[in-house]
């Protein structure tokens, strides 16, 4: 698991570390890391470092100090370096002196555009951890002139460090170099950060438990069930899928297919699309209704069931079955509109809710807003459930506050029916008895790997995502650090 810490926590840890470190040492270490990545980017994009033109956008704080020191290190590799000072009186004094000693050029903002436009690489040292709000107009005007790749220091300026939200002008980086530990912005807004590189400045021992985590491939591989010699079709958990209706039979086929491919246990289907499901997935035991579906160890309920009386009674039956439930799509809408359906929930029954932003607004009375992690936590608390908030970055939170984020690999899964596939994956993992929070996180991970494999750079329908599940699992298992 990769830990992620909020800026308050990072700042407190940095203060402790600063107290036991010689003056300026941390910044030079951080800036040296920036210069190494900058040199690599220059070499990759232009074939050389010496003689290439680097522009530093330098703000008033230590982020600007990092940029100035990184510029000084790049001068030692014979790059041409120009610092554009947004606030000359408050520019980091030692950094400025170091850059000048190394032969760097220093200009004020008014002179900036002509250097920025001709740069081979722009380094964003406008603002870092202390960023508040989007870029101010003077900084935004300079950033608009950039054509070269941008290397952001700590985070792309103008993007909120703790939520990743972009609410106005901001830097869009090809690469971000951060220090000590990842901050929420790096997991929640990969599109604006670009590739994220972590430079170790010895902060880890000063940090306690992370505020947020990202599962890595090893976590997912270790969590995913693998049958052993003593297993049979029942021992790995039977998942029931209550999905589909006359209007939306496809949702049933997608969710059931995902479940059939996720684990090697058994899948039952209950609903009006039984014939269609059987035709596509002959191994699934399909019946017309949840009341005569037989025993399962977890239910998925909701995709395409509709929000009428029949859907409601299906949901209530499933919630009263005493096994973990993944409530998706129409089930989330029903829960929002008719909260009494939750009275049918057996006390202690684990519940996973998987809303997209619109369903979330129904459940909570408002859209998730800029802070999606807090939004998911609030919903988890309100419904005493694990909440998987879908979107480009999926957030999974549980009532106690534990939260993870799944950073996607591209946006191709933003296609109709893709959520039905995810619900089938979640259900299979609930049926094997996995911790619901981990089940939701691992399912989101494999869902995005399947999206990447299925699309290979082109749009694909959700059924192709289902077909890619075996390759996604093979890939996860082969990339895991040890054979799990
Ligand atoms: N504390 C340390 O020892 C270390 C700090 N480091 C760097 O220090 C940074 C934090 O430095 P600071 O706390 O001095 O603050 P910043 O450099 O993040 O910000 C300083 C100033 O930027 C301005 N600002 C705020 N929001 C803005 C916006 N939206 N648009 C334009 N300007 C804005 C404000 O005037 C603020 O005072 C980190 O991000 C990191 O880059 C690194 O050198 C590692 C070591
Ligand atoms: N921009 C995006 N990038 C990556 N994944 C996305 C994006 N938008 C949506 N997704 C994922 O695609 C799925 C869409 O689910 P959902 O909105 O329920 O669609 P549907 O109801 O059509 O099945 C979710 O897993 C979500 O996280
Ligand atoms: K920055």
Automatic annotation (TrEMBL):
Enzyme category, top tier: lyase
Stored InterPro entries: Carbohydrate_kinase_pred_CS, CARKD, Nnr, Ribokinase-like, YjeF_N_dom, YjeF_N_dom_sf
Residue sites binding (6S)-NADPHX per the record: 251, 304, 356, 420
Domain YjeF N-terminal: 6-209
Cofactors demanded by this protein: K(+); Mg(2+)
Cofactor-binding details, from the entry: Binds 1 potassium ion per subunit.
Stretches assigned to the YjeF C-terminal domain: 216-476
Record keywords, A-Z: ATP-binding, Isomerase, Lyase, Metal-binding, Multifunctional enzyme, NAD, NADP, Nucleotide-binding, Potassium
Pfam families membership: Carb_kinase, YjeF_N
Amino acids binding AMP: 390-394, 419
EC number: 4.2.1.136
Reaction catalysis annotation: (6R)-NADHX = (6S)-NADHX; (6S)-NADPHX + ADP = AMP + phosphate + NADPH + H(+); (6R)-NADPHX = (6S)-NADPHX; (6S)-NADHX + ADP = AMP + phosphate + NADH + H(+)
HAMAP family: NADHX_dehydratase
The family this protein is said to belong to: Belongs to the NnrD/CARKD family. In the N-terminal section; belongs to the NnrE/AIBP family.
Subunit structure: Homotetramer.
Entry-linked PANTHER family: ATP-DEPENDENT (S)-NAD(P)H-HYDRATE DEHYDRATASE, ATP-DEPENDENT (S)-NAD(P)H-HYDRATE DEHYDRATASE FAMILY MEMBER
Biological role stated in the UniProt entry: Catalyzes the dehydration of the S-form of NAD(P)HX at the expense of ADP, which is converted to AMP. Together with NAD(P)HX epimerase, which catalyzes the epimerization of the S- and R-forms, the enzyme allows the repair of both epimers of NAD(P)HX, a damaged form of NAD(P)H that is a result of enzymatic or heat-dependent hydration.
Protein name listed in UniProt: ADP-dependent (S)-NAD(P)H-hydrate dehydratase
């Amino acid at each position: 698991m990769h830990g992620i810490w909020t800026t308050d926590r990072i700042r407190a840890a940095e203060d402790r570390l600063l107290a036991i470190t010689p003056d300026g040492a941390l910044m030079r270490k951080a800036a040296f890391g920036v210069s190494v990545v900058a040199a690599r980017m220059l070499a990759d994009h232009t074939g050389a470092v010496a003689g290439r033109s680097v522009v530093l956008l330098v703000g008033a704080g230590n982020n600007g100090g990092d940029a100035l020191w990184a510029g000084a290190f790049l001068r030692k590799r014979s790059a041409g370096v120009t610092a554009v000072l947004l606030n000359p009186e408050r520019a980091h004094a030692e950094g400025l002196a170091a850059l000048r000693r190394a032969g760097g050029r220093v200009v004020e903002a008014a002179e900036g555009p002509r250097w920025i436009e001709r740069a081979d690489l722009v380094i964003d040292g406008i603002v870092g951890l202390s960023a508040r709000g989007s870029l101010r107009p003077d900084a935004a005007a300079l950033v608009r002139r950039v054509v070269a790749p941008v290397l952001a220091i700590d985070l792309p300026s103008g993007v909120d460090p703790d939520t990743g939200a972009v609410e106005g002008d901001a830097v869009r980086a090809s690469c971000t170099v951060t220090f000590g530990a990842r901050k929420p912005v790096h997991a929640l807004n990969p599109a604006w950060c670009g590739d994220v590189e972590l430079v170790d400045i010895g902060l880890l021992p000063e940090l306690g438990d992370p505020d947020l985590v990202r599962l890595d491939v090893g976590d997912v591989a270790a969590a995913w069930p693998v049958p052993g010699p003593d297993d049979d079709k029942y021992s790995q958990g039977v998942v029931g899928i209550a999905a589909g209706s006359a209007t939306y039979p496809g949702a049933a086929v997608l969710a059931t297919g995902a479940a059939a491919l996720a684990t090697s246990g058994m899948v039952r289907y209950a609903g009006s699309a039984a014939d269609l499901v059987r035709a596509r997935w002959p191994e699934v035991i399909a019946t017309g209704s949840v009341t005569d579906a037989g025993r399962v160890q977890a239910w998925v309920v909701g995709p395409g069931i509709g929000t009428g009386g029949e859907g409601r009674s299906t949901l209530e039956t499933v919630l009263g079955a005493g096994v973990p439930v993944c409530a998706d799509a129409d089930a989330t809408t029903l829960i929002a509109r008719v909260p009494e359906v939750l009275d049918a929930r057996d006390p202690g029954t684990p519940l996973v809710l998987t809303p997209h932003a619109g369903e979330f607004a129904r459940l909570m009375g408002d859209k998730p807003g800029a802070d999606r992690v807090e939004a998911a936590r609030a919903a988890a608390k309100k419904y005493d459930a694990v909440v998987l908030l879908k979107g480009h970055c999926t957030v999974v939170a549980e009532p106690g506050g534990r939260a993870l984020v799944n950073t996607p690999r591209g946006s191709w899964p933003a296609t109709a029916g893709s959520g039905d596939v995810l619900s089938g994956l979640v259900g299979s993992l609930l049926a094997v008895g996995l911790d619901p929070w981990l089940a939701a996180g691992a399912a989101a991970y494999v869902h995005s790997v399947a999206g990447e494999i299925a699309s290979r750079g082109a749009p694909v329908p959700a059924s192709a995502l289902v077909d890619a599940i075996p390759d996604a699992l093979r890939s996860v298992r082969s990339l895991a650090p040890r054979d799990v």
